[in-house]
TrEMBL record:
Keyword Phosphoprotein attached: yes
UniProt KW keywords: ATP-binding, Kinase, Membrane, Nucleotide-binding, Phosphoprotein, Transferase, Transmembrane, Transmembrane helix, Two-component regulatory system
E.C. number: 2.7.13.3
CC terms in the record's Gene Ontology section: plasma membrane
One Gene Ontology term of the molecular function aspect: ATP binding
Top-level lineage group: Bacteria
Organism: Cohnella thailandensis
Domain (Histidine kinase) ranges: 341-546
Name of the protein in question: histidine kinase
Name of the top EC class for this enzyme: transferase
Pfam families: HATPase_c, HisKA, PAS_9
BP-aspect Gene Ontology terms: cell wall organization
Cited CDD domains: HisKA
Catalytic activity, as annotated: ATP + protein L-histidine = ADP + protein N-phospho-L-histidine
Amino acid sequence: MVWQYILLQTLIALLPIGAMLLWLTKPERLRHIPVAIVAASGVSLLLGMLSRYPLHSESIINFRLIPYIIGSLYGGIPGASLLTVLYMVSRLLQVSTTFSIALLGLFFLLIVPYLFTRIQRFQAADRAGRLRIGFCGFLATSIPFVVAAIHDANTGDSGFWYWMYIVIFGLGSAAIILFSIQTLELSIDRIKLQVELQEVSSNYRKEVKRLQEFIDISPLVAIFIDGQGRITQLNEMALKLLSPYDRSGVLHRPYWSVLNMFGSETLFDSITKVMKGAERESEVVRFRNRLFYTAVCAWRDEAKQETGAVLIAHDMTELQQLKDEVDKMERLSLVGQMAASITHEIRNPMAVIRGFIQLLNERSPNEHHSYFHIILQELDRANNIINDFLSLAQNRIVEKNTRKLNEVLEDLMPLISADANMRGQMIELRIEEDIQPLELNVKEIKQLILNLARNGMEAMTDKGILRIELKNIEDGVQLKVRDTGIGIPPEKLERLFEPFFTTKTNGTGLGLALCLSIVERHHGKIQVESKTGEGTTFIVSFNKYKAGQLTAGA
């Protein structure tokens, strides 16, 4: 009967621990531990008091203080206060002697304040410190029970088995308190570890996502290759470059089966060298009419002891185009300097030569007039070249007036149409209504349109069609001159605006350079689209926001 009672008291005393093990199954419940422990300890305390020791009416051998101590230490001052009130009220309903009331007063006046002073220290301590404080709390709360046992011994109300049960009660209480604290601490540490693991996993996923987003938005092409030569990761720029492949069609495939579209053996050699131990290899690759600077770097997976490579490619097309534009500007600058320095020196003797040729022509026989005519034509041609030099000269100030581009074009149409009729060609004119006005130098714009129109007519045979289009665009006006000629080969297209570069047999190579200079002085852009056998289109875009300025020649 007694052993069953002790077993029942043990189970009741362990109730808070069992309840907490069931409660602490989710990390989000960690912050509610004080409330849960106080509630479970209160229930355990009441159940312990309701089960009485069968051999003693005052229930000296009782584990009711175990949940009180555990609940007070973990519940904080509010929880300890609530459990103290519950304990005192329950005990007042049970005591029946003056001595028992005195012991309860001793407990309330001495033991409870001592326990309250240890609560804050308990919550700030580590596991070992909490075990010490819990054991000291047990010793302090055991004082009334020791006094009661001595009183029973003096009154003769005790025997051998009674003292045996007292010893079992004391050792059992200490063991249960230490076991409870140790179990709770392990459970709390496990939950905290889960919380930390979740935070680390969440931060890891965030960092991986952030890194992937950074790689995806990066203007660089990035392709990761493992030690077996398989592609393990790539970014959005790489997918665009490797179109029509999609991500599933690229991942885990050998890099040589995917990158063979680059057609660069040296790129494969660079990857192979890095895979064999080289730190870095780089080269310049041309792919789909674009220029890429590629760098292959090594990376090592320390966990798997594998070495892989990462291919990084930077699109240098725009940078190369900018460099080409700078080269063109330098050539134009050189031409301008030449024109400024030698033009007047050449024109004066040429004027004298032309005058004497005309005089000799008047005095020579008629059969020689054709020769003098050829000489005069060549002199005029040389003079036109000098005029082109002057047009390309830098530091020219051009005055602009507000005009509509369609009005300038309509003034030129009789001259362009007459030129086309002489060649047996047709002119198609498409002008959008209500063309917005621009700030233009009319003389230069006429020269620009005439040069582009005559270039198109010279590129066509008879029955060719020259289309001239004029329309408004978002930030200005666009002029298109399209011919149906033989087109321009791609290798010549890039050098089209270079001074002295020409595709004509008798050309000087200054016409399109002059056009570029005029367009830049008007803060516009000129582009060329051409297909061999289909024709060429010159697209000139004028920006309306750059109006009203006196501008130096570009």
